[in-house]
Structures are given as structure tokens and as C-alpha cells.
Design brief:
The structure is a homohexamer. By secondary structure, the first copy, chain A, is mostly beta strands. Chain A has a domain at 7-54: RNA polymerase II/Efflux pump adaptor protein, barrel-sandwich hybrid domain (OB fold (Dihydrolipoamide Acetyltransferase, E2P)), CATH 2.40.50. The first copy, chain A, is built from 1 helix and 6 strands, in the order ββββαββ. Chain A has a 4-stranded antiparallel beta sheet with strand order 4-3-2-5. In chain A, strand 2 and strand 3 form a beta hairpin. The first copy, chain A, is globular and about 35 Å long. Chains C and E meet through strand 3 and strand 6 of C and strand 1 of E. Strand 1 of chain A pairs antiparallel with strand 6 (65-68) of chain D.
């Protein structure tokens, strides 16, 4: 499936923290660059993500803010 | 200001496409890794972002999905 | 690609309204049930969506609210 | 109250999974078409949603992505 | 309709900026406290919002970040 | 850091409800006007927010809906 989300970032799963409803997944998408995601625990189970495995961080452009110093 | 958003990714502004209400900003956050953001045109003006300048892509963890092959 | 978004709803493209940065896409996902999406105009172009074509509406569970009468 | 969210989808509550902070609610909005929502457990309590009851799934258009095969 | 969004803030419409697809609406929700919203231009039209009129800003709790100095 | 989010609302922390992954934070941003946020429990810890302390509610304009009676 091709998706309209402008940001589809391949990476490696660094950590998975499971809660009863929500699970936090951290990906490394470049050396030293991490992205943290919260998804449902059901999704995490159905995706079969494991620490050390490959995964994508996917983000809709309208969810990305910009900051400057 | 310190912000709860788990993802604050420093990068370089690659392109800016301005519409009447919405502006699209592309950042390079690592060699070959780009992030696209849509913000209001008013925000883009007040941030003084320029192509080639430094900026952050900021994303709340609950806005990040995970995908696998 | 398999995605963590809990809502992947197949449907038919009913209408496409293009703006300079943002495009509005309406899908029919069941008889009489429509879903409206706004994506970047760049995404709409790269997806090659056309009126009458098949497409999915994809929604992260954390973006869905619940209402009652 | 009338709301700007373009997607207000009536349905039936199929399941409710309560966590300490987040609750997952699944609605059937057409035969065989389900929508999953995560809301705060406080909201779920104040809405008095029950399995088998009527409810709406409400989604802002900017939260809907589009995918194609 | 009762809605799960935890934040339903009554206010006065201060300004409306219409684009071809997206419209920006500013509300004053307390003396000197404004909230800016972007909605589809179609929604803005169907809500009949006018400058000086009453309206609510509605925000899902998962869309609110927290910052500290 | 300056941020594109159009809504940066200073207030006082009224309550904090911690779950294993998600924490709910309530701010008072004007007399009698509260905003509820859900952030990751990790973020809540790193921000050192405490009841009675000062904090900002931060919201991207595209996450704000508008309602009318």
C-alpha cells in the first residue's frame, strides 16, 4: 500500500514499552536520531515488532511542527 | 521552553512552499532523511524560516505511526 | 507495508478538491458513508488518485473521538 | 452542538477496553466496517458508553490519510 | 451531541482567513487568551461562523502538548 | 526555542494522573478555563511538572476544531 503520509522513515526498533492500552516504540532512523511513537498495544502485537527489528516511523505532514532557536 | 513532544529533530530547511493559509516546509534531519511539515503561513512568517537555515521538526509521539514490511 | 493505524478503510474516491498546498479528498467507504481527508497536494499527485478510483482512508486510533447523543 | 469535524460517523459500540488513563473503543459504522478510537478513560466514563449502545466516531479531516494499492 | 474531546472552550470569533481549501479561525476564549484553528473552508461555511459570533474551540487531549520554562 | 504551534497557552498545573505509558495533565489557563493534555509518562517525568507549578498547553492549529450551538 502507498500512503499519503509524507514522512515514511525506515529505521530499527530500539525499545518497546508496553502498557495495558498504549505501547511506546522507539526507532533509530539515522545514527543518533531517534523517533518515539505511541500506538495501541493491539497494533504493536499485530505488527510483530521486536527490538532490533526493522520498522518505519510514519507521520502525516500536518502533525509536524517547526521550531527555531 | 522545554516541550513534552518526544521528537525534536534538528535539521536544515530544504524547501518552503507557501499557500494562502498553509505552508509546506521540508527539513533534512540527517543525510538523505527529510521531514515534511505543513504549518500555517502566518507561523512560517513569524518563525523567519529561510531555505538553508536551521530549524527543528517537532512531533508528538501520539502522531507517529509504525509500519513494517 | 503493514501499518499500526487501526483504521484502514477501503472505499471509492468521490471527489477531489485541489488547493495550492492542501487537497481535500472524499471517499465512500460504505453505501452512504463518506470520509473526508485533507492531504498535501503533492501527496495527492504522487498517489495518482482519481475520482471513481479505489483508495483507503487511514486513521490513527488516537485521532478518533467518540460522541453520544 | 455542530462541529467542524468533517467526519461524524454514527455506529454501535462493539467493545471497550479500559486502561488506567487511556480507553480503546471500537464502533461498527456499517456492516463489517469498524472504527477504533482511543480516548481518555475519564471521557469514556463521562460519555456513559456501553457495549451495544449507539455512538459516533468523530474525525477531523486533517487526521485522515489516503492510501492506494 | 456530547463529545469525548476533553477540551470544549467557548469563545468569540475574532478573525476568519479563508483559503481555497483551508480556513483559519481565531477565537478569544478568555480576556487576552486566543486560540487559532485551521478547518476546511467547507466546514467554515457550513458552521456559519462570523466574526464577533460565539463558537467553541474543541481539542482532543492527545493533541495537547505541555511545555515548561 | 520558538515553535510554529499557534497556541502556546501559559497556565498552572491543576492535576497529574500517571499511567504506565500515558499521563494526563490538567492546566488552568484562565480563571475557570482548563485544558487537559495526555503526554507520555516519560515526558511528564522529564519536564518535572508538579501540581501548582507553571506550564504551557501547546496545540497545533490543525488540531483545533470549531463548534457552534
Amino acid at each position: 500500500m502507498k500512503i499519503s503520509a509524507r514522512n515514511v522513515l525506515p529505521g530499527t526498533v530500539i525499545s518497546i514499552v508496553r502498557g495495558p492500552v498504549t505501547t511506546e516504540v522507539t526507532l533509530e532512523i539515522a545514527p543518533g536520531v531517534q523517533i518515539v511513537s505511541t500506538i495501541t498495544t493491539t497494533s504493536a502485537a499485530s505488527l510483530n515488532i521486536v527490538e532490533g527489528g526493522r520498522a518505519y516511523g510514519i507521520i502525516k505532514a500536518s502533525s509536524v511542527m517547526v521550531g527555531t532557536d
